[in-house]
Every structure is written in structure tokens, then in C-alpha cells.
């Protein structure tokens, strides 16, 4: 069994050095390096995202390919970077919307829950009053019968 494990773990050095099995960013032998976005680029993308929300508040926000290329050229970034940024930002925006919705629903639930507790307490008091009233009437009826 030990020999089988050694065969599985053995990887030829040539495969490791060549980067075998790793994803490559090369296209026709040219390396495309992913650039880190500057704060100005991020601000520009954020403004663009906010405009998109205002333009399409109820529709799905899908980045138009023409717009993606335009932003890519304006900012000097790869179109894929723009698309991924928008996708991530949309996910964060949706999460924030869900957090706000959850918070408002939780507050409404707390109010309704408290109202329910108050009504239950009132119901207990009313039942107690009915029992007392009923026992008083029985007592009065008994006293009238005895007299």
C-alpha cells in the first residue's frame, strides 16, 4: 500500500516547472497581466453602478456588453475585470437590500409579537373576570334559593 501512495504523490519535475494543470492568462503567447484597480477607477465604477441602480431600480442589473467595453477603454482595465467588479458589487448590493428587508421585518415581528403578548394577558384577565362574575352569580342564585 505504501508503494501505491508513493506512485500517486510522485509528479515529474518537468510538469511542475512547466506549470502543468495551472490556468494560464496567456493568449497567443502574450501574457495579460491583471491590473489592480486604483481608487479613482473604483470611484468611477461605483458612480457607474449607482447610475445603473437609478436607471433600472426594478429590473435585473445586467452589464451591457457595449457599456462594459466602454468602461474598459475609459479605465484601462480588462472587460472581464469590469464584469467581475459589477457582478461582485451587485451581490454586495443585494445582500445589503436583504439586510435592510430583514431588519424591517424583524422590527415588525417584534411589534406584532408584543401586541400578541398584550392580547394574551388581556384574555387571561377577561377570563378571570368572567369566572369571578360567574361564581358571583352562582352564589347569588344559591343565596336566593336558600332564602
TrEMBL record:
Residue stretches in coiled coil: 88-122
The record's family statement is:
Belongs to the HD-ZIP homeobox family. Class I subfamily.
Any idea what this protein is called? Homeobox-leucine zipper protein
Keyword list (alphabetical) reads: Coiled coil, DNA-binding, Homeobox, Nucleus, Transcription, Transcription regulation
Q: What does this protein's UniProt record list under function?
A: Transcription factor.
Q: Name one GO molecular function term.
A: DNA-binding transcription factor activity, RNA polymerase II-specific
Q: Which organism was this protein described from?
A: Arabidopsis thaliana
User: Could you tell me which Pfam families the record lists for this protein?
Assistant: Homeodomain
Q: Which residues bind DNA?
A: 30-97
Residue span, Homeobox domain = 28-96
PROSITE patterns per the UniProt record, alphabetical: HOMEOBOX_1, HOMEOBOX_2
Where would you find this protein in the cell?
Nucleus
Q: Which InterPro entries does the entry mention? A: HD, HDZip_class_I_plant, Homeobox_CS, Homeodomain-like_sf, HTH_motif
Entry's Gene Ontology cellular component terms: nucleus
Which segment of the chain is annotated as a signal peptide? none
Amino acid at each position: 500500500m505504501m508503494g501505491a501512495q508513493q506512485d500517486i504523490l510522485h509528479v515529474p519535475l518537468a510538469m511542475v516547472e512547466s506549470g502543468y494543470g495551472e490556468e494560464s492568462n496567456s493568449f497567443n503567447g502574450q501574457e495579460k497581466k491583471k491590473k489592480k484597480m486604483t481608487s479613482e477607477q473604483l470611484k468611477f465604477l461605483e458612480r457607474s453602478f449607482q447610475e445603473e441602480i437609478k436607471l433600472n431600480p426594478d429590473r435585473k442589473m445586467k452589464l451591457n456588453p457595449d457599456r462594459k467595453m466602454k468602461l474598459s477603454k475609459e479605465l484601462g482595465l480588462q472587460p472581464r475585470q469590469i464584469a467581475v467588479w459589477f457582478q461582485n458589487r451587485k451581490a454586495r448590493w443585494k445582500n445589503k437590500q436583504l439586510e435592510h428587508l430583514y431588519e424591517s421585518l424583524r422590527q415588525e415581528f417584534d411589534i406584532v409579537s408584543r401586541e400578541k403578548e398584550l392580547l394574551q394577558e388581556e384574555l387571561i384577565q377577561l377570563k378571570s373576570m368572567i369566572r369571578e362574575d360567574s361564581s358571583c352569580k352562582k352564589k347569588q342564585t344559591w343565596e336566593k334559593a336558600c332564602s
